[in-house]
Design goal:
This protein has one domain. Helix content is about 80%, strand content about 0%. The protein has helices at about 1-25, 25-50, 60-75, 85-100, 105-120, 130-155, 160-180, 190-195, 200-210, 225-245, 250, 260-280, 280-285, 290-320. The chain is globular, with a radius of gyration of 20 Å.
Length: about 325
């Protein structure tokens, strides 16, 4: 009963996120990213640490931290070629397959070397940077990986209430693309445009990659119909990504930490909010490392989710 209640709550949160994202997508995203985001990073990292990051080795997370440090340094001191950003992200993700399933460092080393060779080939592939450096740590992380985490849980529980929430998630996503009222008056404020500036590349590439429009100027994401449509989806995906995490507090139990840790977490969260209120772009710069770190440290859990889905589907097939 408790599990069903949580799934029904999630269904409600999905619908709520969708409705608000439809009317004020930029404002919703900025609110969710600045208010819910930092608390999500802090609590999830603490929870992952208690779970040993779902890896075989005790110190595997250090590899991911170092990779994230290099990525952040690379982005704040950029050379002419940004390609290394995608390489670091993909290397970290694929290496986590070894961290989750293999303990012997000899085999891990072999996998990492093969991954480097694989990445060297992918570097010549079209859209490689877009999919890995732009989409993977953003929209794939908040939507595809969240969907996988939900589906894995539903398959394990064999919950109809959970299945409904996943179906509603898909339906709401489709609605945001299909329903495009021409008469809806929506003007993005100067503050929202300025605060969203560091994310504009994501919208621009999503629109052009999926041929939703042929934008020539990145500022067109604030004025075109395609810009509004893709922003609705982004705002919806990010908002529900955070709400899904907090709605499952009683199941995940991320809040069960020492009192000092909880106080420190709340203190850092309030400080983060203050930064965003003072200057949104300053908040983004200060929390850039933390936001990417939680993405990197979640990679092993993403591996566990997808492999878990495969196992559950195979198990159901055998039973049938």
């Amino acid at each position: 009963m408790k599990s069903a209640t949580i799934h029904h709550l999630n269904t409600g949160l999905i619908i709520l996120s969708c409705v608000i994202a439809f009317f004020i997508p930029f404002e919703l995203f900025l609110f969710s990213y600045g208010i819910l985001g930092p608390l999500h990073y802090l609590t999830e990292i603490g929870w992952l640490h208690k779970k040993n990051y779902f890896t075989k080795g005790k110190y595997d997370f250090i590899f991911l931290i170092i990779a994230c440090v290099i990525l952040v340094w690379w982005n704040y001191n950029p050379p002419k070629n940004y390609g290394l950003t995608a390489d670091i992200i993909l290397l970290s993700l694929i290496s986590c397959i070894a961290f989750v399933f293999i303990k012997d460092w000899l085999y891990r080393f072999v996998i990492i070397v093969l991954t480097l060779l694989f990445i060297s080939v992918l570097n010549n592939a079209p859209h490689y940077f877009t999919w890995v450096a732009v989409f993977l740590p953003t929209i794939i992380h908040v939507f595809i990986f969240t969907w996988a985490f939900m589906l894995f849980g539903v398959l394990k529980e064999k919950s109809w209430a959970g299945a409904i929430s996943i179906i509603v998630l898909i339906i709401c996503s489709l609605i945001l693309f299909i329903v495009q009222p021409q008469g809806l008056q929506y003007v993005v404020s100067d503050y929202s445009q300025k605060s969203y500036h560091q994310f504009t590349e994501l919208n621009f590439r999503l629109i052009n990659t999926f041929n939703m429009d042929k934008l020539t100027n990145i500022k067109q994401i604030f004025t075109t119909n395609a810009g509004f449509v893709i922003m609705r989806f982004i705002a919806f995906a990010y908002t529900y990504h955070y709400l899904n995490w907090f709605s499952k507090t009683s199941v995940i139990k991320w809040h069960l930490v020492p009192k000092k840790t909880l106080i420190a977490t709340i203190g850092l969260w309030l400080l983060s909010i203050a930064l965003y209120i003072y200057d949104y772009n300053l908040g983004l710069e200060v929390l850039f490392f933390l936001s990417f770190l939680h993405v990197f440290l979640e990679f092993p859990l993403n591996v566990v989710s997808f492999t878990g889905i495969g196992k559950e589907v195979m198990s159901l097939s055998k039973k049938r």
